[in-house]
Amino acid sequence: MKKQSLSFGNFLQVNNIICGIEEADGKVVLEKLITLLKRHFPGLDIDFTRSEIEAREALYPTMVAPGLAIPHARIPGLNEPLAAIACIPGGCDFGSDDKAKVMVLLLTPVDNPNLHVQMLSALATAFAKDGVTEGVAKAAAPQEVLNYFTADSTVIPDYLKASDLMEKFPDMLQETDSILDAVKKFALNRAEELPVVDDAGDLRGVLSLADLFNYSLPEHLLWLEDLSPIYELQPFSDMLKTADESKVADIMREEFLSANVNDPAVKLAKIFLMNKLSQLIIVDDAGKVAGVVTLKNFSAKVFWE
User: Fold this and answer.
1) CB atoms within 10 A of CB 127
2) Element (H, E) at 291
3) Pick from 123, 13, 40, 115: which is nearest to 74 by CA?
4) Same domain for 178 and 36
5) Tens digits of per-residue pLDDT, 215-261?
């Protein structure tokens, strides 16, 4: 039997939606939503829930798009997600310069990271459509909001994919960039590794800070017992003298690991562990760079965010 597709509307009830809120303080709006869910789930601890939400707000932005706030937390004891929506036509202050016109409170079981991340991703996708946030914010009645999400075609996939976990690269290198260009991009972006693409945008290789170190320090220097002759970092000085003449293509690595946007997250976890990587390039079906998944952010999404 084919598994039934789920959407955010499957976890939303009409009596968990408040329309026409005029409150300007986002924390008051959030308290209204927590209290509303408490009515339908008496076991919900309001103080604990609030503290869990605030802990996440301190680490990750709750304003995920213009006008949209999604405060969320993972709560022990829940058997299924709880969701509530506040529609604030005039907007409320919620820790950002941008006012929240729609606030979606999402509480999920602490032991279901797959569903938690997938619901956040599905919500972001649903609200990314033109006019949705403004339309929901101005809804006159809860049933209007529920009708939208019931009819929305954005489904919650069965499992996490690389596309649910990846972020955009802060920058990319061109094969024809000089080593000095690369040094500047690494410094500006605080990156550890950057993809190298050609003029057509096709992925050609990668360059990491470790590669720059290897290029600066020839292997024979690493075997020296007495390092005093290079205490003043002469190898690095020598490299920088010609850094504007040498090209990225000369030192990049053409052999590297990558994953596809549609690969399941567990495959990425396997690649991370078996190859002791700190980040993994994600490509689309055309082989173009789509983004990056770092072990740090992967772990945050699965265990905490």
Assistant:
1) 21
2) strand 289-294
3) 115
4) no
5) 888 776 767 687 777 777 777 788 888 888 899 999 999 999 999 99
Report the amino acid identity of residue 41: F
Number of domains in the chain: 2
User: Rounded distance, CA 69 to CA 124, Å?
Assistant: 10
Q: Give which of 122, 125, 126 is closest to 114, Cα–Cα.
A: 122
Domain ranges, residue 131: 6-156
Q: By 3-state DSSP, what share of the chain in percent is helix, strand and coil, each rounded to 5?
A: 40, 25, 35
3-state secondary structure of 158: coil
The answer to whether 67 touches 127, Cβ cutoff 8 Å, is no
Phi, psi for 240 (deg, rounded to 5):
-70, -25
How confident is the model over 24-61, as pLDDT tens digits? 999 999 999 999 999 888 889 999 999 999 998 887 77
Residue 282: both structure tokens together: 């994600």
Output the pTM of the full model.
Answer: 0.77
277-284 long-range contacts (CB < 8 A, ≥24 apart) are 278/192, 278/193, 279/192, 279/193, 281/195, 281/203, 281/206, 281/256, 281/257, 282/162, 282/163, 282/166, 282/258, 283/203, 283/258, 283/259, 284/260
Q: Which residues of the chain have pLDDT under 50?
A: 1-2
> What's the CA gap between 99 and 34, in Å, rounded?
20
Is residue 107 helix, strand or coil? strand
Does 285 reside within a domain?
A: yes
As given in the structure block, the two tokens for residue 274 are 């078996």
Q: Of 130, 156, 182, which residue sits at a domain end?
A: 156
